[in-house]
Amino acid sequence: MTDTELQAVKRDIETLRADLQNVVRALEGEAAGKIDSTRSKVSEAVERLKQKTQEGLQCASRRAKELGGQAVDKSRECITERPLTYVIGSFVAGILVGKLLLNHKR
């Protein structure tokens, strides 16, 4: 290989090195843009999920309050219809619980 050919190969290598550096910089910029875009999309998805979760919890809470209120109203109706039955039932239940607790301590 002659000196001229060697110099040409060196120039080609330097040109190739510069081209590769440009390609790497371009890829870095593109990757950074994609990362920012992906980060933004993930943040938006997280916010939507938070909002839907909060709405679901609020809905479940309202429904639980409604059902609890209905249960209280129904129990009041039943007690109003037969108060003596419920007083006697509560008394008997109290005696049974008391017996169980006394037997458990022995």
How many DSSP H or I helices?
A: 2
Major beta sheet, specifics?
none
The string of secondary-structure elements, in order, is HH
Shape: rod-shaped
Overview of this structure, please?
This protein is mostly helical. It has one domain (3-80). 96% of the residues lie in helices and 0% in strands. It contains two helices and no strands. The mean pLDDT is 88.
Please give the structural blueprint.
Elements: H1 3-81, H2 83-105
Helix pairs in contact: 1-2
Short summary:
This protein has 106 residues and is an all-alpha fold.
Entry keywords:
106 residues, mainly alpha
